[in-house]
Design a protein that fits this description.
The complex is a heterotrimer of chains A (326), B (281) and C (529). Chain A is mostly helical and 326 residues long. Chain A contains 14 helices and no strands. Chain A is globular, with a radius of gyration of 24 Å. Classes of the chains: A mainly alpha (326), B mainly alpha (281), C alpha+beta (529). The interface between B and C is medium-sized, with 24 and 26 residues.
């Protein structure tokens, strides 16, 4: 009983801390974009072929002036109004919701796949520590880790899109192809292959090294030795006993990586002209579309807060050995 | 004791090959100005010409000797990447362990700071920095460290939360050891394999970031680095110049990663005594 | 375990092959044209919502017709079949095509034109300046007379050929056009009807308007896709038309594409802060012009794919280009002489200083290129090298584009590399790119008014409807501009596009550019039978 009471207290502590941090984040996501030099008017017309007179310029600036202040912004947020994009003339929330599925599809599946591959290979490598299999794998992974996303991306593009012409070079679907059901899904998957492969190749060496590292520590822990002494089959020792314990850092990493969803895949989105939140944010910054920048930053930061809160609360559930208080 | 470790390490083929690679890279970086056949900023050669005796790796689009550019880039990138990675790792490990060991409000404060840093898009921080300051390369490396410590801190904290409950740690605490002692004597060495992984990733991220930094105005666009070389060479990926222009900086980058990983892995045994038996096997 | 991996890998591989095969077989067969563009998003295609850049204007031009239009040879009829100018009454008369229809089936009449002009006077369409237009009236359903306050030479190009005509029956009820996003905001009279803009994917869909008054559209659908890889998208048939880099021309030609090249209408230029010492002295600006070797920038930064620009600003392909404009041939000695005449002295390292203060200038580089794209180049590096060679120490800085722009806008810079087009369109561009009276809000404009003769000439050339008078004035403007060097035009980059000829459409660059000089080969007349 006493244990569960402290546990509840811990959770309450987390929620308070996260609440405070989220408030800071709301302020920062409101305030920081205002510091960006230039504004929507200068971004739109500054280097344009349309030359404004001073009067037209100040007219335009008046149309797109930030007026409410932070209090107004908070009040709008409280009533779920995320603002209206200057450039798209559409609600920020709708723009985010349109881009989000693509980001989740690309980055989400890349993280899942690379975590899966990394975990299994990492466990196997740690089990065979010092042997041929491990050394080769280790070498391969560290080389893969040295390849920047942009290089693998362009390489895959060159070979599979330009030379072999197996996969399309741009977009997430064939635009306006009027496909239905399965055809639509297959078309989407076809467009997803190259960007997804690029991301998996770039994420999974890190996961591999991490899984291997934590597994190496755990295989030496007394309980694995006990399991071994009991004569349990190696496969069961690896996955049912040891690997469960090596999962924690990987899950942490998964949470962190998922949090970097927005800005993490910009390079790949850019190479393959893939839609997503990263492109949305980058373009919004380029156009100084303040409500949209604020919205995307706020959305992504709240998502990061939420994912991390859930992770913190679930640590104990994943690994009962975790304690917070001394 | 220490002599034994040294003996063992020098007999380990993995470690020796890692060491040789590291020395080679360090020499190339150190003696770059001597080794370079030309001034890397000299734009007077015929653009996009292939390898020749005078230009072993050919000439880039701006008429600069690629080998000389590569050597100087290696030097800049190695130092930049190492500073950023070491500083980031140091911050991350220390803050992560402190958060895990002391818990309560210290933990909350450090972790929430980490969350906020994670949540702010890097690109915006960098544009703002470029608009307001002109930082030196050293302070830029430190800025990257400040942006990148949260990932390491979180990973270390997660693992330290488990170690904290191990018998020998609790025993040390019962015997009256202070937090700093336990962190330094027990937690730090035992998590070694874990955070070396983070080191390689951080060095790589910092070196690649150099390219975006120069395009965002935080570096002189004429600055030489592996990331910038790669970015320029990639513009011409469809021409027959990739093998002598794009490949060398990529190979250098991959070699650096391999070196760090190999050394990290072969040092595992030294820092965790429990791994020593399998080490000798 | 190894077996499991092998199986997994094999399974994945089979799946990929299957997906490829299936999606190849499911490709659509509708008759359509696909145009690729790297940015994707250029706003909704109507006058109040498209972005004020070339690609935005072109996307709007499919839907909204203007009174006249241009093709590769010059002006052609648009909504108006014929037009005439009466200098005595300062009035243009346009005869509207009786077959002209709105996308909703209603007839387009002279009343719509009158309405549009009045509406734009109230709610300006910023690409068109109607300052000189006194008023418009319809003398019969097919005739509209537009009268001017004073003579205005650029009228046909910058108003007649640029101003989109709005349907009165829709817009007369609209009070705030900026926020009017109803589907009826996209009813125009152009050859294509706007159907969709996908903001996340950056794609546009248009459908052919069968009742288009100048002939039927060649394809049922027109689609814009976002692709940062024009070479791959063209080679694989994902796109039928795209702008390309010069090096891509050869591989694409081999793949059966047709390569087209624009006239030289877009220049990269060096902006000079002429309000600040030493740049406020003409001699110093001239010294910069002598120090800069245009051909060397082209060779080192663009591998030869560009032409040195005229120091008189107007394109060398323009009818009114003045070949007598004295070029600044690279001459380091002359440059040094001019700098020394300002009292600067060289120190032991060969760098200039005055009163113990070193001459150190900051150069802002830029990635801006034709058609609103961003490609990094080495212009800044080469210019830095050239200026340092004569003894000016240079601090090179490359900031994010809007940051650079706002620093130039606020005069918070020394030298900045920038670029703009329109140099082969109407010479009104000279006013916009030189004088603060016309281009006060533009960062590409030199905003220079230090020469009274130049100011006077600029005002006069707009009034000169007589071609010979205008030619004389424009020639003189170029001479004075080159003498004053308020900014230095560096080069005209080769502007190329490639298209797939198998689609049966011939694309071309428009003479003088679309509208006010947009260097994009997507002329709607290519798609009209």
């Amino acid at each position: 009983m006493a244990v569960s009471a402290t546990h509840k207290k811990t959770i309450r502590g987390f929620i308070v801390a996260y609440g405070l941090a989220s408030l800071v984040m709301i302020y920062l996501s409101y305030r920081l974009p205002l510091f960006l030099p230039g504004d929507f008017t200068s971004a739109m017309y500054g280097g344009s072929h349309v030359v404004l007179t001073l009067e037209q310029e100040s007219d335009h600036r008046r149309l797109y002036a930030e007026t409410g202040g932070f209090v107004g912004y908070l009040a709008d947020l409280a009533s779920m109004r995320w603002g209206y994009s200057y450039a798209f003339r559409a609600p920020v929330s709708r723009l985010i919701l349109e881009a989000l599925p693509w980001t989740l599809l690309l980055a989400g599946s890349a993280h899942l796949l690379s975590m899966l591959f990394g975990f299994v290979l990492g466990v196997e490598a740690a089990w065979r520590r010092g042997r041929w299999f491990e050394k080769r794998l280790l070498g391969l992974m560290s080389i893969l880790q040295g390849l920047p996303e942009i290089v693998t991306g362009i390489f895959l593009l060159f070979v599979f899109a330009l030379l072999l012409q197996w996969f399309p070079a741009a977009g997430a679907t064939t635009a306006y192809a009027n496909l239905q059901g399965w055809e639509w899904i297959i078309n989407g998957a076809h467009h997803l292959v190259l960007p997804l492969t690029t991301l998996v190749l770039s994420y999974f060496p890190g996961n591999f090294l991490l899984a291997r590292g934590s597994m190496v520590l755990i295989l030496k822990a007394p309980f694995t030795e006990t399991a071994r002494a009991k004569g349990l089959p190696p496969f069961r020792i690896r996955y049912a006993h040891a690997a469960r314990n090596a999962l924690l850092p990987l899950v942490t990493r998964f949470g962190l990586r998922l949090a970097l969803l927005v800005t993490g895949v910009v390079v790949v989105e850019n190479i393959y002209s893939y839609p997503g939140l990263g492109t949305l944010l980058l373009n919004a910054i380029g156009k100084r579309d303040l409500p949209l920048i604020q919205g995307v930053v706020l959305f992504s930061s709240l998502m990061i807060m939420l994912v991390n809160l859930l992770l913190d609360i679930s640590y104990r559930w994943i690994d009962p050995r975790v304690t917070y208080a001394q | 004791m220490h002599n034994n470790y040294r003996q063992e390490l020098l007999q380990n083929r993995l470690f020796v090959s890692g060491l040789i690679l590291a020395v080679l890279l360090a020499l190339a970086a150190l003696f770059a100005p001597v080794l370079a056949p030309h001034d890397p900023y000299d734009m007077s050669f015929a653009p996009l010409s292939g390898p020749s005796v005078e230009h072993p790796l050919g000439v880039n689009d701006g008429g600069m000797d690629i080998l000389s550019e590569l050597l100087l880039s290696l030097r800049n990138s190695v130092s930049f990447g190492l500073v950023a990675a070491i500083a980031g790792l140091f911050l991350g490990v220390i803050l992560g362990l402190v958060a895990a060991w002391y818990g309560r409000w210290i933990d909350h404060a450090i972790m929430q700071l980490a969350n906020i840093l994670l949540a702010l898009p890097n690109i915006m921080i960098l544009i703002l920095t470029a608009a307001l300051f002109r930082p030196s390369p050293l302070s830029l490396a430190l800025l990257l460290a400040v942006i990148s410590w949260p990932t390491t801190a979180k990973a270390c904290r997660a693992q330290a939360l488990i170690l904290k409950n191990r018998l020998h740690v609790q025993e040390a605490k019962r015997l009256g050891a202070g937090g700093a002692y336990i962190i330094g004597r027990h937690l730090l060495p035992e998590l070694f394999p874990l955070y070396l992984v983070g080191f390689a990733a951080k060095a790589r991220a910092a070196m690649l970031m150099e390219a975006s930094l120069s395009f965002l105005g935080l570096f002189d666009p004429g600055h030489k680095s592996l990331g910038i070389m790669i970015n320029y060479a990639l513009k011409f990926y469809y021409l027959d110049v990739w093998w002598h222009w794009l490949a060398p900086p990529v190979i250098c980058l991959a070699l650096m990663m391999t070196t760090v990983t190999i050394i990290a892995v072969s040092l595992e045994g030294v820092f965790d005594p429990r791994l020593r038996e399998s080490w000798q096997a | 375990m190894k077996k499991t991996f092998a199986r997994l890998f094999f399974g994945l591989f089979t799946l990929i092959i299957l997906i490829t095969a299936l999606s190849l077989s499911s490709q659509a067969h509708t008759k359509e044209i696909r145009i690729a563009d790297s940015a994707g998003d250029w706003g909704y295609p109507n006058p109040y919502q498209h972005y004020p850049r070339g690609p935005g204007f072109v996307r709007m031009s499919w839907v909204f017709d203007s009174l006249i239009w241009k093709d590769q040879n010059g002006f052609i009829p648009g909504l108006a079949d014929s037009w005439s100018y009466d200098p005595a009454r300062l009035a243009y008369t346009f005869r509207i095509n009786p077959k002209a229809r709105w996308h909703d089936g209603r007839a387009l009449t002279a009343e719509d034109v009158v309405f549009t002009i009045n509406y734009f006077k109230q709610h300006p369409y910023r690409s068109v300046s109607l300052e000189q237009v006194a008023g418009a009236r319809a003398t019969d359903p097919q005739t509209v007379v537009i009268s001017l306050g004073k003579p205005y030479a650029p009228f046909l190009a910058n108003i007649g050929g640029t101003m989109p005509i709005l349907p009165r029956h829709i817009w007369e009820k609209v009070k705030t056009p900026e926020t009017f996003t109803d589907p009826s905001a996209f009813i125009g009279s152009g050859p294509y009807m706007f159907r969709d803009f996908n903001k996340a994917q950056g794609t546009y869909l248009y459908e052919g308007f069968r009742d288009y008054h100048r002939g039927r559209p060649r394809t049922e659908r027109l689609i814009y896709i976002r692709s940062g890889q024009p070479l791959v998208s063209l080679s694989t048939g994902q796109a039928d038309l795209a702008a390309i880099q010069p090096e891509m021309a050869e591989p694409l030609r081999r793949a059966g594409m047709v390569i087209i090249k624009d006239q030289r209408g877009w220049n990269k230029k060096l902006m000079i802060n002429h309000r600040k010492f030493p740049f406020n002295d003409k001699r110093f600006r001239q010294a910069l012009a002598y120090a800069i070797d245009q051909q060397e920038i082209i060779d080192k930064s663009h591998r030869g794919f560009a032409t040195p620009a005229s120091h008189g600003l107007l394109s060398i392909d323009h009818e009114l280009y003045n070949p007598q404009v004295a070029p600044y041939r690279p001459d380091r000695e002359k440059a040094r002489g001019l700098i020394e005449s300002l009292g600067f002295q060289r120190d032991r390292q060969g760098f200039y200083s005055k009163d113990n203060r070193p001459l150190k200038v900051e150069l802002l580089a830029s990635k801006i290129t034709v058609g609103g794209q961003n490609v990094s180049d080495r212009d800044g590096e080469v210019i830095k090298m050239q200026l340092e060679a004569i003894g000016i120490s240079v601090d090179l800085l490359s900031l994010e584009q809007v940051t650079t722009d706002s620093r130039v806008r606020e005069w918070n810079f020394d030298l900045a590399i920038s670029g703009h087009g329109g140099l082969y369109g109407d010479p009104r561009i000279l006013n916009e790119m030189i004088s603060p009276l016309y281009g006060s809000a533009s960062v590409s404009s030199a905003r220079f008014d230090g020469n009274p003769e130049l100011n006077r000439l600029l005002d006069e050339q707009l009034l000169a409807v007589d071609p010979e008078t205008r030619k004389r004035l424009v020639h003189r403007i170029q001479e004075v501009y080159a003498e004053e060097v308020p900014a230095i035009s560096l080069y005209y980059p080769d502007t190329l596009a490639a298209y797939n000829p198998k689609k049966g459409v011939v694309w071309y660059y428009t003479k003088g550019g679309l509208g006010v000089g947009v260097p994009i080969p997507q002329n709607k007349m290519s798609l009209v039978e």
